[in-house]
Amino acid sequence: MREIVANKSALMILLNEALHLNKQRFEVKYPVNGMTLFSLDLERREVGSIVSWDKFENHRRRFKSKSDFIKRDQPKYGDLKECLISSGVLPYSNIAELEASLMELESGSQDRFRNPKPTLISVDTNLLYLRLLTRIFPLKGKNGAIDASRFKFVLSQIVREEITGHVLSKYKPHQIHQLQAASHEKAILKEFSNACTRRTRNALNAQTEYDLIIDEFNAFTAESERFEEDKEKRDVQIAESLADFSRQKDANVLLLTADDNMRVHARNFRLSSELIVLPHEVPRQLHADQWKMADLLYDLTLHFGLVRLSGLGIILLGEWRGKNVQDFLDESVKIVIEKGSSIGDQLLRDVGLVDSWRTIEGKVSRL
To answer: Measured between alpha carbons, how far is 274 from 307 in angstroms, rounded to an integer?
Structure first.
């Protein structure tokens, strides 16, 4: 087997290679228990044959392990659903209303007579896990794309502390052995040695979203001097920190949240808020362009740890020995090319060419 660690843009290269080599339809599987999650049809731009909740849970129940920890660590159907949502393949139920609100906010910000105070956008913890802000931009405006630079953002420090509190554990050697003993896949699971468990991977992904918003969107931080252990009190504290920031900066704050109770707290502190409605049902088929498919594959590697692209001879890993925080920030993925892979040689060539071009571009920009 050959392998390469690359930015998730390599997944777009992978999909393009598959399409070019007439491998436009293939299945995405969770190799730990052999379950097929869905199929990708690149030509028809379709995510199809999405596994149902019943079938998914039947596979989970049949997963035999004496370890309660390993059973708990196995992905749930909610993980698959979150990946479909975060990638944009399964849209938010009120996505059109959200985009309209943001475009209205952007146009209104240009009118200082109508809106003398600037409005900053903030998000609750649940939407950081779903990668809302870094995935929704650019918006498609009437006069062209509207990117994030046209808006101002603020995030509560409490939100980051809440996420960091879930960065808890790594797999221990005996847990890897237990996972191998129960799994259809054994050799590849050695990659999980001293690597992050599912809950920690998901928290680090949300932490990456927070850091990208701070660094790339130039977001402000609403600070707080305490951290409540009780979740409900912590939600109040998040709203309070944003309200304090609003007063200090003489600015409005629009809080986006998927939690209706959070809107109550926002209202109590006289903050504007908008509820993001999560879809309830997961259809059997969904349409998606290749960018969304690439995001979907990347998100799956984090929630599931690894996935196999059946028929391509490719395994994608979101966790591996030696992966560090910078790999999360770079949104890196390990691509394992199995013996006899139908696209392995071309993929290595093209990813290498792109990496070389980026290296040259970086050197030129520093001149």
So the answer is: 35
> Tell me, which fold does domain 95-166+201-275 have in CATH?
Rossmann fold (3.40.50)
**Cβ contacts of residue 201 below 8 Å, gap of 6+?**
302, 303, 305, 318, 319
| DSSP state at residue 115 | -
Amino acid found at 305: G
**C-alpha–C-alpha distance, residues 307 and 106, integer Å:** 39
Q: Which residues of the chain form CATH 3.40.50.1010?
A: 95-166+201-275
Q: How far apart are CA 303 and CA 202, in angstroms?
A: 6
> Going edge to edge, which strands form the sheet with 286-287?
2-7, 332-337, 314-317, 306-310, 25-30, 35-41, 46-48, 286-287
Question: Cα–Cα distance between 109 and 4 in angstroms, integer?
Answer: 45
Cis, peptide link before residue 138, omega less than 30° from 0: yes
Question: Interior CA angle at 136 toward 135 and 139, to 5°?
Answer: 140
pTM of the predicted structure, to 2 decimals = 0.92
Task: For residue 28, give the H/E element and its range.
Answer: strand 25-30
Spatial separation of the C-alpha atoms in residues 130 and 86, rounded to whole Å: 5
pLDDT digits (tens, 9 = 90+) for 255-266: 999 999 999 999
Measured in degrees and rounded to the nearest 5, phi and psi for residue 333 equal -140, 145
Total residue length of the chain: 367
Q: How far is 4 from 1, CA to CA, in rounded Å?
A: 10
SS3 331: coil
C-alpha span between 186 and 170 (Å, rounded): 18
How would you classify residue 357: left for phi > 0, otherwise alpha for psi between -120 and 50, otherwise beta? alpha
The tokens for 291 are: 């960018």
Q: What pLDDT, on the 0 to 100 scale, is given for residue 1?
A: 78
- Would you give the distance in Å from CA 85 to the centre of its chain? 9
Name the stretches of the chain with pLDDT < 50. Answer: 361, 363-367
How far apart are the C-alpha atoms of 244 and 128, rounded to whole Å? 21
